[in-house]
Design a protein that fits this description.
- The complex is a heterodimer of chains A (270) and B (284).
- The N terminus of chain A is likely disordered.
- The longest helix of chain A has 31 residues.
- Chain A is flat, with a radius of gyration of 24 Å.
- The termini of chain A are far apart.
- Chain A has a domain of 122 residues.
- Chain A has ten helices and two strands.
- With 270 residues, chain A is mostly helical.
- Chain B is of the alpha/beta class.
- Chain B contains ten helices and ten strands.
- Chain B has a six-stranded mixed beta sheet, with helices on both faces. Chain B has a four-stranded antiparallel beta sheet with strand order 2-1-4-5, with helices on one face.
- In chain B, helix 3 crosses helix 4.
- The model of chain B has no long low-confidence stretch (mean pLDDT 91).
- The chains are: A mainly alpha (270), B alpha/beta (284).
- The interface between A and B is medium-sized, with 21 and 32 residues.
Chain lengths: 270, 284
């Protein structure tokens, strides 16, 4: 019986590529730039250009293209839902009438546009987590937010919380799997009966899980204190982040591509 | 009436980078009223094997059957199989969830569809089997001591009246007194006709109490037989992660210089032999 042993989508995939070795801050900053670019795209040609860039980025990151596409799986339902809403609720020239539903030419166009846009957004954003270790990611965020510390923003604490949360996801999945199996052996069934019955069947899983989570948190806190952890102030790092010329170049190139595509679409296409 | 495993293979995460062969061509047999111990070091596949015995995991190839019922995914007999084979996981106290011990103990019987007027006596009987009295019924299982929690968890499986009891390292983290209480309980259950399958790395318990022992080494069956055969195997071959109990090691050491010495893990037997040899040696 397979419960939760799927590999998580969008999880870091180690590889030796120029994208992997970029400073995490560079990648974090590039994401909103790229996302803005995709939001500005509207024409088919612009979407095609972005799809081409996606393939190029996958190749440059030495990631199998299928794996990149896989990371969009969890949001496919959302994409389909958004597209359907656009198909059914956009006014314009009717091309098909089914009872009280009218499908318009504009609706189909808007649906395709929104669907593609969402897909591209998710796929590009997933490169951040696919090519950056969770630790680097939280390090990068901490450094990016560090100027706000003087206004009382808890940058280090947030990064630490994120690191710990990410670290415990696989552990908790394993624990959940174990407890589910144990209750199954005592005759619980998670896939029979009404929705209410199924929800109730999860109580014997959730309660032990909460107990374990609090125990773990307690143990982790003790272990950290025993190693004299006391927060961010004056804390040094084993591997300090280093911003190099390559990172500046990569970020500049990203901005240039986004600006060029947006300008091109405005001036060349109607 | 027995649990039989034939040429069982199991692979975790097939087709991914995490693919691991957990069990490879493992066979075993255990009847009611018999005690089988599965020994091996960490990662040898013991727990994976235990989870096959009541349909929590299913074989990739090979067969598992319980009292003649095939354990396959979507088997129509799955409830009967799970009911016949009680499975006590490692650190079973972590699965406690109920508000009071009574609710915890009635979880399995209720799931098996036992009539409600029979549940209270079953819970009470299970509780007394693990050596606790009815005053515990109203207490919260989460506020008990570690040893008591373990007992409640085992009682909660016993309350389902299993014909076989599979236990995965039930003595881990217990003091020697509680360990003794637990093995006494298992011996009593065996005498009353329950089949006991004990997953352990404690060779002392396995050699002293089992009818047969299956030794796993990296997912393969290294040896399967009576305790005396396993003992001979262990003296001849070193198995990583398994250490002979002190008495057994001593008897093996004596055996190397004196082939007449018995190969035994029984303190009294070895002592008798040494005594006999001493008196024999003093003779002119």
């Amino acid at each position: 019986m397979k419960f939760l042993n799927n590999l998580t989508f969008g999880q870091y995939v180690p590889a030796d590529s120029p994208v992997h070795s970029l400073d995490p801050r560079c990648k974090i900053l590039a994401v909103p730039v790229v996302l803005t670019g995709i939001f500005m795209a509207g024409h088919v040609a612009a979407f095609a250009a972005w799809a081409g860039l996606l393939a190029a980025l996958a190749w440059y990151s030495r990631l199998p293209f299928r794996l990149v596409l896989n990371s969009a799986k969890p949001v496919l339902i959302l994409v389909a839902f958004t597209a359907l809403i656009h198909i059914f609720f956009t006014d314009g020239t009717p091309i098909l009438k089914l009872g009280f539903v009218t499908i318009t030419r504009e609706g189909v166009a808007a649906a395709a546009q929104m669907g593609l846009r969402l897909l591209l957004l998710v796929l590009f954003a997933s490169f951040l987590t696919l090519t950056t270790k969770p630790m680097e990611l939280s390090d990068g965020l901490e450094r990016l937010f560090s100027p706000l510390v003087r206004f009382g923003f808890p940058a280090h604490e947030l990064a630490m919380m994120m690191t710990i949360a990410l670290r415990f996801i696989p552990t908790l999945l394993t624990e959940t799997d174990r407890i589910m199996k144990a209750q199954l052996a005592r005759g619980a069934s998670f896939d029979r009966g009404s929705l209410w019955k199924r929800l109730k069947a999860f109580i014997p899983v959730l309660i032990p899980l909460f107990v374990i989570v609090f125990q773990r948190a307690e143990e982790l806190a003790t272990a950290m204190e025993a190693r004299c952890y006391r927060g961010g102030e004056g804390r040094t790092r084993m591997r300090p982040l280093r911003w190099s010329g390559r990172d500046t170049a990569a970020l500049a190139a990203t901005v240039a591509v986004v600006v060029a595509l947006a300008a091109g679409e405005r001036s060349l296409l109607p | 009436m027995s649990i039989a495993v034939e040429a069982l293979c199991h692979t975790y995460h097939p087709g991914t980078p995490l693919e691991t062969r957990a069990l490879d061509d493992v066979s075993l047999q255990c009847g009611r009223g018999e005690w089988l111990s599965i020994v091996g070091h960490t990662g040898s596949g013991k727990s994976t094997l235990a989870q096959h015995l009541n349909g929590i995991l299913f074989p990739d190839s090979g067969t598992v059957s319980v009292d003649g019922m095939q354990v396959v995914e979507k088997s129509p007999n799955m409830r009967d199989i799970r009911r016949a084979v009680g499975l006590v996981f490692q650190y079973p106290e972590q699965q406690l969830f109920a508000e009071d011990v009574m609710e915890e103990l009635s979880f399995a019987p209720t799931n098996w569809g036992v009539q409600s007027d029979r549940i209270a006596p079953l819970a009470s009987a299970a509780l007394s089997m693990v050596g606790l009295d009815d005053s515990y019924l109203a207490r919260s299982p989460l506020n008990l001591s570690g040893g008591e929690k373990r007992k409640i968890a085992i009682a909660s499986v016993l309350a389902g009246e299993p014909s076989y009891l599979v236990l995965d390292e039930p003595t881990a983290g217990l003091d020697s007194w509680s360990r003794r209480e637990l093995t006494d309980l298992l011996a009593r259950l065996k005498k009353e006709g329950t089949g006991i399958i004990l997953v352990t790395h404690d060779l002392d318990i396995a050699l002293n109490l089992s009818d047969s022992i299956l030794m796993l080494d990296r997912g393969r069956s290294a040896a399967f037989g009576a305790p005396s055969e396993i003992m001979r195997y262990l003296v001849a071959n070193s198995v990583p992660g398994l250490r002979l109990p002190d008495i057994a090691a001593l008897s093996a050491a004596i055996g190397r210089s004196d082939p007449a010495a018995p190969l035994t893990w029984d303190r009294a037997e070895l002592k008798r032999w040494i005594k006999a040899r001493e008196t024999g040696g003093r003779r002119p």
